[in-house]
Known about the structure:
The protein is α+β, with helices and mostly antiparallel strands and about 500 residues long. It has two domains: about 30-140, Glutaredoxin; about 190-500, no CATH class. It is built from 15 helices and 20 strands. The protein has helices spanning about 40-45, 50-55, 85-90, 115-120, 145-155, 170-180, 190-200, 220-230, 240-250, 255-260, 275-280, 295-310, 375-390, 410-415, 420-430, and strands at about 30-35, 60-65, 80, 95, 95-100, 105-110, 110-115, 135, 135-140, 210-215, 220, 265-275, 330-335, 355-370, 400-405, 435, 460, 465-470, 480-485, 495-500. Strands 12, 13, 14, 15, 18, 19 and 20 form a seven-stranded mixed β-sheet that branches. A five-stranded mixed β-sheet has the order 3-2-1-5-6, covered by helices on one side. Strand 10 and strand 11 form a beta hairpin. The chain is elongated. The relative contact order is 0.10.
Amino acid sequence: MDRPVTQPELPAKTPDETxxxxxTLPALPADGLIAVVKRDCPTCELIAPVLADxxxxxxLAVYTQDDPAFPETVAQPIDDRDLLISHRLEIEVVPTLxxxxxGSETGRTYGWDRAEWEKLSGAxxxxxxxxxxxxxxxxxxxxxxxxxxxxxxxxxxxxAARRVDFGNDEDExxxxxxxxxxxxxxxxxxTERRVxxxxxxxxxxxxxxxxxxxxxxxxLTVEKVAINAVMAGCKPDYLPVVLAAVEAALDPAFSMHGxxxxxxxxxxxxxxxxxxxxxxxMNALGNALGQGNRANATIGRALQLIxxxxxxxxxxxxxxxxxxxxxKYTYCxxxxxxxxxxxxxxNDFGIARGTSAVTLFAGYGLQGIVDQKAxxxxxxxxxxxxSLKVLHNVKLAPAxxxxxxxxPEHERTFRAAGWSKARLLEELYKRCEIPLERxxxxxxxxxxxxxxxxxxSSRNKFxxxxxxxxxxxGSAGMFxxxxxxxxxxxxxxxxPVSREVKS
Length: 503
């Protein structure tokens, strides 16, 4: 296994850590034709007589990826089992035929296409006894793992992070724990190969700076995000979603530093909308907020590790939560758009339906709403409203923002009555208006509340726009939930933020 890489802000690499090439690359022919083949390719086997024909007609160098004796039809095939020439030529498919002139490439074709081969080589009548066309095979140098190994051997990774050596007898998982790079659970060691493979999940430049990562305001690059995505257990195709979540967290409106520093329970909750949910296999159905789905679990965890490992947000340091909540490991799920009659959550923030997006909300543990009797929307809305009123404390209004997660069976009740999401929100706000006499100190036998005489009228439990609705969950069970949040906006608070997922 190659050595783990860590965050670039750690001490710079020493000279003996710099990778070197395993051998000097031989010079390529300045003029003539080059063919790259492998024995483990039916099309390469098929066109072996064509290669012999071209070699007899003029200059042709044949590089073989897997068998130095292949093809037997040509004189002196060149051994490229280390794949360095194939890497240098950026071969993706074999067979590939390249023409060079004056030391530069002037044309190439891949697979077997008689017309293209004749055009490129200038030789007529090639392979007349063969089919006119055959697709090629994937080149060995671009196979997962091999490409990354080649970049490492040639010193072409472009990674800025220093590499950390562990001792021969050192357990790498324990070493990572000792260095404080984990959230308390084991992480995947972020080797160069794994980081390079993760970066293949995005077209963005690894050196691109996304912003300053709180709380320490360290420059956060795409590469640093990829390193922590590896540690979290993400797959490369999750990386664009992680990047979008990070960009949302860096938005000043979200106030990531405040989310960490508050003694409240909150942590980032990631809700994913759009086609990417299905493309990467996220769970929006049964147990959507629970364990068992890799994408849900690792995307949220990657964001938390980034804030910890890059930004320095550690518990009992900058993270001052009194109790915290289990979502500080990971809190990420997808909305069930296909099953819903409502607009997706991201649409509420100006992102068009059908666009992949993430919405970040500073929330805490799930509060259940159990209503198995309501069969009309008014009754169910009353249940929802009374449950919402207890957030923070029944005596506090406005209290905090909240994300209402409506299960399919409850949504069906509203759908059958023709209630849109906007209608449900309107009704909930009406029902969450609390009389002033219930909010004053001492009312209900509770000391918490407003001093007598301060309030002149009723107060709503939520600020305008502070209550959001998302549809998720299994098809059976009349159990919805509330994810309470932090104070919405103002000097000490966090606003929900949405960001489009970009490749």
